[in-house]
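New to this. Look over this protein:
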Amino acid sequence: MSAPYNNPPAPSYNTPRTLHIYKDGLTSRHMTIADADKTHPLYTITRNSGSLFSSKPHMTITQSAQATPHPTIVGTATFHSMSRIIDLEFHGHPVALNSEGIFTRSYAFQSPAFGDRLRWECDGMWGADTVLVNGKKEWIARFDASMWSMGKVGKLQIVNGGINGVALDEIV
């Protein structure tokens, strides 16, 4: 990716926006989140190697160098071996992603950008697909896993295609 990228066209508020998530190799610790055209990288996700006992944070999300002239860390995630709580940090603000219960497959957090309690819920028989809903149970985003793909992790469809900035960072 040596050539500079032009910025993709601004998304419309009326149409959903689809982001595509790819692994950078079969055993890579890096993933790329690309815009709808699949050629404009927006974010890079880096997983620290090792187990839950390795260095923290366990996952870091950075704006892609092609998306902004000065890439910055937009978020981190730290997992705990004896708890179902995931510690998130968005632009330096700590947020706890809490399990909704022992027998549920949903996690909730208080969103600084949306000013609402958001919840990721499993959607589907295998639990790989998830939806993000607000306090009114309205869909904000949906992640569809690419179970049979070697390079593509999945796609993230955002209902309001005009969501950008810190709100988009939180969804990602």
